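It is worth pausing here to work through a concrete case rather than discussing structure prediction in the abstract. The textbook approach is simple: state the sequence, then state the predicted structure, then interpret. We follow exactly that order.
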Amino acid sequence: MSSNTQITYGYYNFTAGQQPNKVEAMALCRADISVDDCRDCVSSSASSLLSVCPNSMKAFGYSDNCVIYYTNISLFHVLTDRPFWALRFDGRITADIPKFNSSLTTLMTSLQNKASLGNSVLKFATGNTKVTANQSLYGLVQCSPDLNRLDSTSPASSRTATSSALGASSSKSHKIIAIVVPIVGSLVLILIIAFICIFARRKKQGKFSGNFDKEEMDTLQALQFSTGAIKVATENFAVENMLGKGGSATVYKGKLTGGQEIAVKRIERHAVLGEEQFKNEILTLAKLHHGNLVRLLGFCLEEDEMLLIYEFVVNKSLDAFLFDSQQRIIHRALKAANVLLDAEFIPKIADFGLAKSFKADQSQAVASKVVGTHGYMPPEYLTQGQVSLKSDVFSFGVLVLEIVSGQKISSFQIGERQENLLAYAWKNWQEGKAWNLVDPALSPAFSAEILRCIHIGLLCVQNNMADRPTMSSVSLMLSSNTMTLEVPLQPAFFKQNRSMLLSEPSQDNTSDQSNSRPLSVNEASVTELYPR
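Step two, the predicted structure:
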């Protein structure tokens, strides 16, 4: 869904293809959020869904603000009772349980009836009811607008989550918040979103605000950013924008709509010191202003996100100047034979005879002569002699796939049949059969890690060098099992069954004369090669 896609009251549907390859998709946002927030939610949810379920015929994704669903069967104007999703509230209900359940049923029935009376573009209702003198129950119901009133009020759309016998005493007033999300096939979407997360968030924010007096709270309110704005600034926390990762937080580079560059520290909620660290940084930097202190521009505490927004500092850290190599080197011969292992099996890269040095601000160059081992060289280097920081990324991707498969790219075979490693890896990954690539000697106990390595390897060998990740991003992908990986595009793979002439770039890069040698070409996406 692009930025100019029309969203009618947060509802969007789409159909593509013809049977048997027809797909129907729909997205529905909470009616009480903005169009921009809706678009951000659907965009990020769709990316996550494609990454988590890359080969599924049907898939469903849910977040605080929206749901998305696609399927290969008829979706619109059809009521089903699957999928069904309910999230239990683990807080304590101090009210009488039967009375609570009765209040819940009465509230949801009332809201369901109100929502069903909506028009063809919006079926939405909110409300609340008293459970006891100091406990209130809040609800939100929203139905997919493509359903008629009868479907919207059917039993399939009226499920609620029942609470178990929980209880505790409390001297404070509470808002009991239940989340019940029956999401049916056409998304008869009853978002009973008197959210648990809202309850938890308000509770946490209440404790948090207690650390500030009124004047300080007024100052902090001016520093609050929306999650949507930060997701846009960082391109939804894209791996390419990652600056670094610590024990409990990841830092991303971003750009606000006004053009200002920022650094966003995304603190993990599950971290032991996550919330404590978040509060401590705001408390400290909000009260201190000094030329030698990094400036805190704001923060965000919503949608299960804890974000700190700082000014972007161009020259990185002192650590980078003291300990990082200031010289960039493109190896051009990265392969298994050039990775040596010491007594502790620590890898050491050898053979820098073909290495090319880059300046600190240089990202690519044209080689005077194409040299190296076939299979490890990226297509732009073979066809144009173009060397870049992504050249070794391609070679690394090939090396990863070789390690996983236990076979060389030059002699890869399945049974008695000769195959192309990259073509075979891509085909099986697309079909959800990536394990076919794996060396039988590798233990299935590490299947998740192995499949992740295949995913990363395919990201590295994508045909377009701009689509390949940087090596720093690859390092972070390998060190974090929670980082969401992008969906790889078709790789640059070649098969040894046809040949064409490849011209080596001339010494002065201007001559039309060159030596040629046969080169195998891609069986799935043919790359035409011409003399330079």
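Step three, interpretation. Residues 150-211, 494-532 have pLDDT under 50 and may be disordered. The domain at 214-311 is CATH 3.30.200.20 (Phosphorylase Kinase; domain 1).
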